[in-house]
């Protein structure tokens, strides 16, 4: 009887945890709680010297958020190479990928349709996994809630492939 009560208590009080890695050139990390689920965002830094540590997080992540500075057109080839190296890593196969076209508050920023056009040849390698490109402005907070909502739905949908971690 004690085991049954303990099991029920844990089921009602434990929170599901999912880990999302944020990759790209410049980004920020944080934790978000939605109902009984905690989304932990790991900001891994975008400097080239830090790219070598990214792989250490791949096996633990439940989703990838790849941030693109939509105003930095000079580095778009570097961004494409980096994105391709991330999504072709076997460890993240089947993991949902969300690309955020950041700095949409700047009039000269590449729009989502332009980002999609640039990354389409690489994105074809994503196969059937969930992926999306969304416009955001980290400065103004525009698009952030939509991004979190998209992630939450995909994490729930992908739970058999990458189950959440349960913690009190």
Describe what you observe in this structure.
By secondary structure, the protein is an alpha/beta fold. It has a single domain, classed as P-loop containing nucleotide triphosphate hydrolases (Rossmann fold, 3-Layer(aba) Sandwich), CATH 3.40.50.300. The chain is built from five helices and seven strands. It has helices at residues 2-13, 51-58, 76-87, 112-123, 144-157; strands at 15-24, 31-34, 37-43, 63-69, 97-102, 131-135, 165-167. Strands 1, 2, 3, 4, 5, 6 and 7 form a seven-stranded mixed sheet that branches. Strand 4, helix 3 (76-87) and strand 5 form a beta-alpha-beta unit. The longest helix is centred in the last third of the chain and has 14 residues, at 144-157. The chain is globular, with a radius of gyration of 17 Å.
Secondary structure topology:
Layout: H1 2-13, E1 15-24, E2 31-34, E3 37-43, H2 51-58, E4 63-69, H3 76-87, E5 97-102, H4 112-123, E6 131-135, H5 144-157, E7 165-167
Parallel strand pairs: 1-3, 1-4, 4-5, 5-6
Antiparallel strand pairs: 1-7, 2-3
């Amino acid at each position: 009887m004690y085991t049954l009560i303990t099991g029920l208590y844990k089921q009602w009080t434990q929170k599901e945890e999912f880990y999302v890695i944020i990759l790209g050139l410049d980004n920020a990390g944080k934790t978000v709680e939605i109902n009984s689920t905690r989304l932990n965002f790991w900001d891994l830094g975008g400097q080239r010297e830090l790219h070598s540590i990214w792989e250490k997080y791949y096996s633990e992540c439940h989703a990838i958020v790849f941030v693109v500075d939509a105003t930095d057109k000079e580095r778009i080839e570097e961004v494409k190479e980096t994105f391709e190296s991330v999504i072709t890593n076997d460890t993240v196969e089947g993991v949902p990928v969300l690309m955020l076209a950041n700095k949409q508050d700047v009039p000269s920023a590449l729009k989502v349709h332009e980002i999609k056009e640039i990354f389409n040849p690489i994105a074809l390698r994503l196969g059937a996994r969930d992926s999306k490109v969304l416009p955001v402005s980290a400065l103004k907070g525009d698009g952030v809630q939509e991004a979190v909502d998209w992630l939450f739905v995909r994490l729930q949908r992908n739970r058999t492939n990458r189950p959440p971690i349960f913690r009190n």
